[in-house]
Amino acid sequence: MGFMPRVPRVEFEGAVYHVMCRGNRREAIFRGDGDREMFPGTLEEGCARTGWRVHAFVLMGNHYHLLLETPEANLVRGMHWFQTSYTARFNARHRLAGHLFAGRYKALVIDPGDRSHFATVSDYIHLNPARAGLSAAGELAAYRWSSLKWYGSARRKRPGWLDVETVLGELGWLDRAVDRRRYVERMEERALEGKEAGDSGALKR
Hints:
Blueprint lengths: L14 E8 L10 H18 L2 E7 L3 E8 L4 H20 L11 E5 L5 H16 L16 H4 L13 H6 L6 H20 L9
Antiparallel strand pairs: 1-3, 1-4, 2-3
Helix pairs in contact: 1-2, 3-6
């Protein structure tokens, strides 16, 4: 029996994806803060090349999550450049060779017309450190390696490729100090609720 062909990626202008990829053999894709700083730097270059907009992201030990919007139908081309570039830079830093990521990245298509999904996926992404025990109760925003810290920052302090307005707008808020503070407080409350409930694990990956 032959191998089944890969299902082609769904690509179209204005597509929105929840992208996730793990390290090869579930090994770490970040060995230190230098790698974690290199990752968004590489992502910034990828966004400049492709026109992508990132609505949320988180870096974990052996995987990452992105809430990604592609104004052009270029997910495959952009992801190939992004993961290949990060892998080459990671390998050069650590004098390694070979694959860093395991198989195909996952890219769940989100209906860009259904704005109720942006906050849901963003919540899931931002809560990952709490679910993994990487942030203490009430300190989710202190986790350095997610976009949540920038959700609480003024526009001039955020990278240009990060769009917080869509998620805030879905919740009925604006990109202003009072609403950014509300969003961060909301996420801290959600993290605390999850801890008190014992984290059912239904969304944990």
